[in-house]
């Protein structure tokens, strides 16, 4: 098994190209082997074991630069959403590209700093910032606190007064628009806990302007995640535009943050035939940086504010895969189960959001597809990656890749069933490096202590 792939590359015949732009990621077949950039993924699986996350540095870079370039017509800052993938090497790639960061905890701020990111380029979001997190972020000099309620503004003001500082703040407006995404990742309607209601926001700014240790720096919104069309963004921007103009005139705001949420292609075109994958609605109609910018920049240009965006999935989603190995093939009368060594604790998206992740073999073999369930070893019926999906025949010891697992994959992993956290590898060209070692099993309970009476 060679580590590097030859130059003769054949792209995955699905899920790898948007119609109007370059390939969506750097995972492709060279002959029968699935490669990440110039590296055979199976060689990585054999070397580092499975379950294994593999990231492409080139995909991360291209996706960031694509967005950055699309927004070139306005003063802007792309703040990568750290929650989508916080591996130190991923953050390093983005920090070196000049990315800002959207953070949601003191821990994420520490991670960004450890990766060489600048606190002054960090936007601190989240509905429940603690006193100590606010204090830490203020001392480090974050770009903005995106506040989500009046009690939070009062708390930030109090902490800033104690530290004899002025805190830069933006308030998150909830524009009450429907993002047309999964209910668990919709955030911009009044059913959600996020932001301040559109009708209340001016009152909140008026009262916040009286708090001496706050500097009103911007307005923020974020309507949801995996939004595949520009429409909901445009609707929200159009609704908020008059408001942000008034707030700018009154309080001298400097920026308007549109939040994150740009969706990616998860679904391939297997059903419509491999040769016609690019004709699927998903691939043709998916949001792209170009479409996003073409519809939104004309609205935003005259505003004269700096534009911030907070993409997570768009940058990291297609840049990572989860590699797993088939432990057993179990044929019941009804089903063909591929029991693999990854589970819902490694990638919870299918169980939690009914999310679709494309599943492909690391080594392609000719032959018919058979309807299969790919399931993990965890003792829950919800522990599956797909059900009744036509997949190439796979046997014990074969490797599979769960595609587009770079966002909300490893970061949402847990130790459920006392399963160690997976290892992570970063690929750049023909090079690969272990960027997180597999968690040693004993470490899982290393913080536990028997009660004195149980010793
Ligand atoms: N900004 C704010 C304020 C957010 O809450 C989020 C995501 C983002 C930016 C980045 O959103 P993105 O560009 O990645 O869509 N675990 C779910 C997604 C949860 C998103 C939470 N907030 C999933 O696996 O689909």
Describe what you observe in this structure:
By secondary structure, the chain is an alpha/beta fold. It folds into two domains: 27-54 and 318-443, Beta Barrel (Lyase, Ornithine Decarboxylase, Chain A, domain 1), CATH 2.40.37.10; 58-313, Alpha-Beta Barrel (TIM Barrel), CATH 3.20.20. It is 26% helix and 24% strand. The chain has twelve helices and 22 strands. It has helices spanning 41-48, 57-70, 88-96, 106-114, 131-140, 150-162, 201-208, 231-251, 281-285, 289-300, 313-316, 349-353; strands spanning 10-11, 27-30, 33-36, 39-40, 52-56, 76-81, 100-103, 122-124, 144-147, 167-174, 196-197, 214-220, 255-257, 306-309, 320-331, 336-340, 359-361, 369-375, 384-392, 399-402, 423-428, 431-436. The strands form three sheets. Strands 5, 15, 16, 17, 18, 19, 20, 21 and 22 form a nine-stranded mixed sheet that branches. Strands 6-7-8-9-10-12-13-14 form an eight-stranded parallel barrel, surrounded by six helices. The chain has a four-stranded antiparallel sheet with strand order 1-2-3-4. Helix 5 (131-140) crosses helix 6 (150-162) and helix 8 packs parallel to helix 10 (289-300). The longest helix is centred in the middle third of the chain and has 21 residues, at 231-251. It starts with 9 loop residues before the first strand and ends in a 19-residue tail after the last strand. The structure holds ligand LLP. Ligand LLP binds at residues 81, 83-84, 102, 125, 185, 222, 225-226, 259-262, 310-314, 349, 353, 407-408.
């Amino acid at each position: 098994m060679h580590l590097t792939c030859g130059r003769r590359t054949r792209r995955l015949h699905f899920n790898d190209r948007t119609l109007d732009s370059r390939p969506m990621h750097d995972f492709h077949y060279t002959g029968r082997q699935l490669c990440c950039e110039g590296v055979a993924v199976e060689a990585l699986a054999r070397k580092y074991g499975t379950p294994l996350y593999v990231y492409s540095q080139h995909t991360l870079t291209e996706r960031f630069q694509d967005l950055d370039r699309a927004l070139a017509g306005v003063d802007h800052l792309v703040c990568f959403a750290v929650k989508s993938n916080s591996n130190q090497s991923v953050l390093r790639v983005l920090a070196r590209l000049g990315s800002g960061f959207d953070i949601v905890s003191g821990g994420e701020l520490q991670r960004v700093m450890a990766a060489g990111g600048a606190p002054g380029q960090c936007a601190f979001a989240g509905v429940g910032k603690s006193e100590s997190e606010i204090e830490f972020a203020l001392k480090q000099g974050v770009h903005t606190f995106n506040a989500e309620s009046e009690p939070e503004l009062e708390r930030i003001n109090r902490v800033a007064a104690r530290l004899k500082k002025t805190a830069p703040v933006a308030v998150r407006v909830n524009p009450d628009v429907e993002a047309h995404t999964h209910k668990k990742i919709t955030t911009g309607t009044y059913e959600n806990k996020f932001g301040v209601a559109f009708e209340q926001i001016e009152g909140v700014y008026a009262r916040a302007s009286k708090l001496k240790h706050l500097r009103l720096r911007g307005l923020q919104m974020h309507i949801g995640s995996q939004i595949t069309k520009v429409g909901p963004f445009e609707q929200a921007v159009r609704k908020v535009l008059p408001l942000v103009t008034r707030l700018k005139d009154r309080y001298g705001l400097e920026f308007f943050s549109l939040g994150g949420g740009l969706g990616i292609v998860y679904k391939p075109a297997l059903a419509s035939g491999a040769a016609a994958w690019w004709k699927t609605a998903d691939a043709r109609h998916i949001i792209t940086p170009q479409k996003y910018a073409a519809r939104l920049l004309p609205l935003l240009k005259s505003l004269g504010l700096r534009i911030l965006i907070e993409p997570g999935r768009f940058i990291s989603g297609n840049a990572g895969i989860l590699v797993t190995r088939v432990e057993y093939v179990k044929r019941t009368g009804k089903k063909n189960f591929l029991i693999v060594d990854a589970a819902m604790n490694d990638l919870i998206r299918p169980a939690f959001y009914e999310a679709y992740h494309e599943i492909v073999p690391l080594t392609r073999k000719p032959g018919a597809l058979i309807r299969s369930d790919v399931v993990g070893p965890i003792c829950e019926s919800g522990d599956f990656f797909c059900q009744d999906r036509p997949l190439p025949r796979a046997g014990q010891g074969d490797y599979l890749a769960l595609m587009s697992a770079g966002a909300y994959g490893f970061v949402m992993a847990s130790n459920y069933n006392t399963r160690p956290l997976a290892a992570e590898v970063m690929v750049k060209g023909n090079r690969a490096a272990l960027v997180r070692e597999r968690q040693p099993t004993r470490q899982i309970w290393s913080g536990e202590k028997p009660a004195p009476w149980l010793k």
